[in-house]
Amino acid sequence: MKVAPSIIAAKFTDYQEEIVRVEKAGADLLHLDVMDGVFVPNITFGPMIVEAINEISTIDLDAHLMIAKPENYLKQFIDAGLDWISFHCEATKKTDECIRYIQERGVKAGLAINPPTSFDRIKEYVEKLDYLLIMTVNPGFYGQQFIADVLSKIEEAKDWMTKHKLRCLIEVDGGINATNAALVCQAGADIVVAGAGIFKSSDYRKAVEELRCSKA
Ligand code: DX5
Ligand code: ZN
């Protein structure tokens, strides 16, 4: 599995150093959690900070937009230098337009789904997506408890993709640690996001390796 550390859990006063450290530890993507205080009850950062992170980082930037009406901000985020962008199906009525807009600009498009949202609800979009971001916590904060009930949805999505020969990747996000990463991997995840699981550990390299190689 690929590992995408979520810098929301890093030490903000040492951002530059934290990004360099986690890249040296073997991170594949840098996960940027964008929260607007409307779609989720927390606020993080916007395109200006993404642009600054892009100047520091040498690996692909994977933004997870937890914002209402993402269609209004896609241009700014793409201009800031993102490589992957996911937005929530629960946050817009313009899912098709958003996917198309992102992909036409050479950026990978992902659709994020919250724990209570069924796979059925977003099935029709999967063939168009570069990746599906399946949340294993209700979004808004890092360091929450992994919701194991979502494992069956990961399996359902994986089965559907295999059956229909779709090349959409599955990214799983929320409460991932060395223990549950094995279950997520077995269920079909291609990429795992981890905030606290990496940045609150004393050895980033060991944490990244444990997530990447986990087997159930
Ligand atoms: C939750 C975010 C996640 C989260 C990851 O709203 O989308 O990316 O911060 O952090 P952990 O791994 O600590 O749950
Ligand atoms: Zn996230």
Automatic annotation (TrEMBL):
Co-factor binding details: Binds 1 divalent metal cation per subunit.
SUPFAM superfamilies, per database record: Ribulose-phoshate binding barrel
Pathway connected to this protein: Carbohydrate degradation
The keyword rRNA processing is annotated on this UniProt entry: no
A GO cellular component annotation in the UniProt record: cytoplasm
InterPro entries according to UniProt: Aldolase_TIM, Ribul_P_3_epim, Ribul_P_3_epim-like, RibuloseP-bd_barrel
Enzyme class name: isomerase
Keyword annotations from UniProtKB, A to Z: Carbohydrate metabolism, Cobalt, Isomerase, Manganese, Metal-binding, Zinc
Matches recorded under Pfam families: Ribul_P_3_epim
PROSITE patterns according to UniProt: RIBUL_P_3_EPIMER_1 (PS01085), RIBUL_P_3_EPIMER_2 (PS01086)
Entries under Gene3D superfamilies matching the protein: Aldolase class I (3.20.20.70)
MF terms (GO), sorted A to Z: D-ribulose-phosphate 3-epimerase activity; metal ion binding
Binding residue positions for substrate: 6, 64, 140-143, 173-175
A single BP term in Gene Ontology: pentose-phosphate shunt
Enzyme Commission identifier(s): 5.1.3.1
Family: Belongs to the ribulose-phosphate 3-epimerase family.
Function, in words: Catalyzes the reversible epimerization of D-ribulose 5-phosphate to D-xylulose 5-phosphate.
Name of the protein described by the UniProt record: Ribulose-phosphate 3-epimerase
Species of origin: candidate division WOR_3 bacterium SM23_42
